[in-house]
Amino acid sequence: xxxxxxxxxxxxxxxxxxxxxxxxxxxxxxxxxxxxxxxxxxxxxxxxxxxxxxxxxxxxxxxxxxxxxxxxxxxxxxxxxxxxxxxxxxxxxxxxxxxxxxxxxxxxxxxxxxxxxxxxxxxxxxxxxxxxxxxxxxxxxxxxxxxxxxxxxxxxxxxxxxxxxxxxxxxxxxxxxxxxxxxxxxxxxxxxxxxxxxxxxxxxxxxxxxxxxxxxxxxxxxxxxxxxxxxxxxxxxxxxxxxxxxxxxxxxxxxxxxxxxxxxxxxxxxxxxxxxxxxxxxxxxxxxxxxxxxxxxxxxxxxxxxxxxxxxxxxxxxxxxxxxxxxxxxxxxxxxxxxxxxxxxxxxxxxxxxxxxxxxxxxxxxxxxxxxxxxxxxxxxxxxxxxxxxxxxxxxxxxxxxxxxxxxxxxxxxxxxxxxxxxxxxxxxxxxxxxxxxxxxxxxxxxxxxxxxxxxxxxxxxxxxxxxxxxxxxxxxxxxxxxxxxxxxxxxxxxxxxxxxxxxxxxxxxxxxxxxxxxxxxxxxxxxxxxxxxxxxxxxxxxxxxxxxxxxxxxxxxxxxxxxxxxxxxxxxxxxx
Length: 577
Known about the structure:
Elements (H helix, E strand, L loop, with lengths): L3 E3 L7 H71 L1 H8 L3 H18 L8 E6 L4 E5 L4 H11 L5 E7 L2 E12 L6 E11 H4 L10 E6 L2 E5 L9 H4 L5 E6 L5 E7 L1 H4 L3 H43 L6 E3 L8 H67 L3 H18 L5 E3 H18 L4 E6 L8 E3 L4 H11 L7 E9 L3 E8 L6 H12 L15 H13 L4 E7 L3 E9 L5
Parallel strand pairs: 1-11, 13-15
Antiparallel strand pairs: 2-3, 2-6, 4-5, 5-6, 7-8, 7-10, 9-10, 12-14, 15-16, 16-18, 17-18
Helix pairs in contact: 1-8, 2-3, 9-10, 9-14, 10-11, 11-12
């Protein structure tokens, strides 16, 4: 069965707009991820190169530190050898001028041989404890020697930088002392001086690394003379990599610094290549977007729009796609239309079957309720007729008449044809039943009804409470000789109506109560009543409630031996319109 054709592929309905928007969002997210990956790769690469440059700078600083430290150690060793020579000690103790200069010649040979391995030594000087000095090599002025003495007196072994005659020298000083007595006798100093300019060759580490020596935070020597006399704090911000290492035993530190443009000299080329690669990737994303949009998203959006325009109905059909080069989607449209044809045929057959099944279920449900009600009716009528027979045996004609009248009223009410009845109508019949029971038991039952006036606006299944009241009067209060009381209370919640039937009878032992509670808690009590008419009250009521209203409603029972039993009935709130 063909239906009307629905769908226009030349429009842009909301469904198509949403699909294209989502596809555009996915493309944007994908492009963003590409940019993030590119940025991450560029950053990681740059950091790796920077880290390598930093390691090289640290290696350079360490190398210079070791080289200069080794040179200084050799000078200190030579100064120590000179200071420890007996000839030098005897020379510094001499007070006679002639003998002093005579011994100086011998000491000069010792100094020459000791200082021979040190090519960088500019001056070797001895200083006496009284300020006298002797220059074994170098051309220091007298004033420079006096300045040297003033700087070193009372000092122990010293390696430092000192300015003499307008030039800076590395100074290696070792005290000369006589240890033959009880306490050392300071005789003077053996001093080796090296000009800083000779150390500059050690700082040559290539054009890409600036090397420097600092004293107290100030550059005193560098392979780049423009950096000298600049503080470390001023120097560091101008470099991409900056490494500093102290020279042991001195106040000096070696610095290796790499300028930003030397850290990554190919940075501009790398960045250009990376940007070109990013542009190519984004161009490919755009081309892919255009292709998918034209050959997939738009046809798909058209099909979705057509399906959405059906509005969930089966009588419509999709229009064939007027788009060339889309055979897959054209086949999809034809398949959807064919599916709609078959679905409409199936739906018609299914509705017919469901209607038949529904009618059968309603008939079955009504039959179950009818059988359950008939069981209660039969149970009640037989009990009442038995009581009438008992009264006739003892010639209680007045009571027989009252009981027969009450039975007639109850049966007339029961077969009036209404399944749901007004609460107050049902309670009126319930009172008639209690009167019948009081005739049977000589008026020993006292029944209290706590039902508010607004209950007259609600409906309940007819005779739903009577079997419970009968159970309470017969089994709960039947053996009680006096003060046999029954209370029936009603309350209304937001969606439910509750009844509590309580007696002050003998109650039930725990095992019997547990058995009864388990039986009532079973989800499926059976489609039809159990055969026979004994012990059917509570199970019958439970079946009637569940068949009509479902497992959310029903009866619950609690009991305390010697105190009584309470049965709670929950029903849905049904207005009497």
